[in-house]
Write a structure and sequence with these properties.
Dysbindin, coiled coil, rod-shaped, mainly alpha
Length: 245
């Protein structure tokens, strides 16, 4: 549009320039003797008016061209802005066209979030159960450790008790052996005392024909029948009974 306007202004300028050139050529035409009565200054005012109008129109044309360039720039900016707005509107329209799909996806996402929330709650419950199971396993492990420690302590105590029993048994056997030896020694001493006393009584009987004295010994009060061993006196008793005197 502005290009055609510029072309029209340029056409007017070209026409005015051609008219002025024709007028200038007409002024330089030599006068003939027959034209001496013509008023040569008659067209100067008209020419001055045309020149003034042409200068004014030329100045106005330049101003209009500058303003046209400014307007063209503004129109270009406005066109760019309108194109940008049109592009944005097209994008908005496209987004609005996809809005049902977006809403459907949003509802699907909300449903998925609800499912994930339920899954998270289930996982949280599983984690709590796992923590309880872990605590129970730790308690069982501690219980097993305590039982193992108790079994080891019991085994150690039993081993020490068996060792103590063995030591006590050995000591008891040793004491019993010592006691038996002591009893055997006492029994032999008593047998020897009774054997000597019996020999004296037999000798006294042979010499006097009777036994009048009482048999006594320091250990009569403690004498028991099972302590007397007659096997060692059998030969002497037999010789006494078989003696003809």
């Amino acid at each position: 549009m502005f290009e055609s306007f510029k072309k029209n202004i340029q056409t007017v300028q070209d026409g005015i320039s051609a008219s002025l050139q024709r007028l200038s050529v007409g002024e330089r035409t030599p006068t003939t003797p027959t034209e001496s009565n013509v008023n040569l200054g008659a067209g100067s005012e008209l020419l001055q008016m045309y020149q003034t109008q042409w200068a004014t129109m030329h100045h106005m044309a330049e101003e209009n061209a500058k303003k046209a360039q400014i307007v063209d720039g503004r129109i270009t900016d406005l066109t760019s802005e309108l194109e940008a707005q049109h592009s944005q509107m097209a994008e908005v329209h496209s987004l609005l066209a996809h809005l049902p799909n977006i809403m459907s996806q949003l509802h699907s996402m909300l449903t998925t979030i609800g499912s994930m929330r339920a899954l998270f709650e289930e996982v949280e419950g599983g984690l709590l159960a796992l923590e309880d199971l872990e605590e129970e396993l730790e308690l069982q492990e501690k219980t097993l450790d305590l039982r193992l420690s108790l079994a080891l302590a019991r085994e150690k105590h039993t081993h020490k008790l068996n060792e103590l029993k063995s030591e006590l048994s050995v000591a008891h056997q040793k004491k019993m052996i010592d006691l038996e030896k002591e009893h055997e020694k006492e029994r032999k001493e008593r047998e020897q005392v009774f054997s000597e006393q019996f020999s004296e009584d037999v000798k006294y009987f042979k010499e006097h024909g009777n036994v009048t004295r009482r048999i006594s010994s320091p250990s009569d009060s403690q004498l028991k029948l099972e302590d007397i061993d007659l096997d060692q006196d059998v030969n002497e008793l037999d010789s006494f009974l078989n003696d003809p005197a």
